[in-house]
């Protein structure tokens, strides 16, 4: 696929440029000079370049799937506890949450994701297990799972996550005990997957909510709405820059992965560990920018 090769070429100067997520010690140990990208289309074709089959820590990309699971299970009730506006603030900011009385701006910043995980845990009795089930089924890989070393590393060093969860609890916006929510949250973020596996697992968002076996998971309207929240909030305080340069519903993670949905066409997943200033992969952004420049896989 020509646009994929051009994306890889455009990203090359950015690979290794930027910082690793040093606040999670085991992510800081990853080789930053890796790059992989996959484009999976709704009709079953998969194109891959580079390190497309190397597993990495999906981190915040998991938040799309926990939100989808909550919405699939009980509909729209989660929006009583989380808003749908871009935050314009760093993904782990405490200030805005306090100013806004414990109601997170959106489900993709850390505070919002903690509320979604809390709800999923209350609904299923095992938030991370529910997530792993979905990812295994949709990627076709039974060995997909959470990396306990990464989870422990974040559990021990993630002081801001603890602070956010306690702040949420102080405002009455958690149902489960703080330490349970955090354990589930760091475990879901520590999910280890390849670009290929992630792209396949996310295809339901490009297929109006339909899973790989043809069964309905989300309604078309729910899938459309999750894509809309990804476009406006999926890349934190660089969501505007992403919309300008890429123009696709996207979700990034501090492991260096970015997932982008092209409704009715497919999913692109790119990974390169070094992060730009807002916590998204610098090479990943360059790759998606080029991909949407040299292909007609866009929504605009
Ligand atoms: N687990 C990370 C955290 O809570 C996820 C952040 C991210 O990927 N942006 O800080």
Automatic annotation (TrEMBL):
EC category: hydrolase
Database matches in Pfam families: Glutaminase
Keyword Cytoplasm on entry: no
GO MF, one annotated term: glutaminase activity
Catalytic reactions on record: L-glutamine + H2O = L-glutamate + NH4(+)
Residues bound to substrate: 60, 110, 154, 185, 236, 254
Domain of life of the source: Bacteria
Record keywords, A-Z: Acetylation, Hydrolase
Keyword Transmembrane helix: no
EC numbers: 3.5.1.2
UniProt GO BP: glutamate biosynthetic process; L-glutamine catabolic process
Oligomer and partners: Homotetramer.
NCBIfam families, sorted: Gln_ase (TIGR03814), PRK00971.1-2 (NF002133)
Family in the record: Belongs to the glutaminase family.
Name the record gives this protein: Glutaminase
Organism: Nocardioides islandensis
């Amino acid at each position: 696929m020509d646009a994929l090769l051009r994306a890889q070429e455009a990203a090359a100067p950015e690979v290794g440029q930027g910082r690793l997520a040093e606040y999670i010690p085991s992510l800081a140990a990853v080789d930053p000079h890796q790059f992989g990208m996959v484009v999976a289309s709704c009709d079953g074709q998969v194109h891959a370049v580079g390190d497309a089959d190397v597993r990495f820590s999906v981190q915040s990309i998991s938040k799309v799937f926990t939100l989808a699971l909550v919405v699939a299970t009980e509909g729209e009730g989660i929006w009583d506890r989380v808003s749908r506006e871009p935050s314009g603030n760093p993904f782990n900011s405490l200030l805005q949450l306090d100013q806004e009385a414990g109601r997170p701006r959106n489900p993709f910043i850390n505070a919002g994701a903690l509320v979604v995980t809390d709800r999923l845990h209350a609904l299923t009795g095992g938030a991370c297990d529910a997530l792993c089930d979905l990812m295994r089924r949709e990627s076709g890989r039974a060995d997909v799972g959470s990396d306990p070393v990464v989870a422990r590393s974040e559990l021990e060093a993630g002081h801001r996550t603890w602070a956010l969860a306690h702040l949420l609890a102080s405002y009455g916006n958690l149902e489960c005990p703080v330490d349970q929510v955090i354990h589930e949250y760091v475990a879901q973020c520590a999910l280890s997957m390849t670009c290929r596996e992630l792209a396949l697992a996310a295809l339901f968002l490009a297929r109006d909510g339909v899973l790989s076996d043809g069964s309905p998971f989300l309604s078309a309207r729910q899938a459309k709405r999750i894509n809309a929240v990804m476009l406006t909030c999926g890349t934190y305080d660089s969501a505007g820059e992403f919309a300008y340069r890429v123009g696709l519903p996207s979700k990034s993670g501090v492991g260096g992965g970015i997932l982008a949905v092209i409704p009715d066409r497919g999913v692109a997943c790119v990974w390169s560990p070094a992060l730009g200033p807002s916590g998204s992969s610098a090479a990943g952004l360059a790759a998606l920018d080029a991909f949407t420049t040299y292909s007609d896989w866009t929504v605009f």
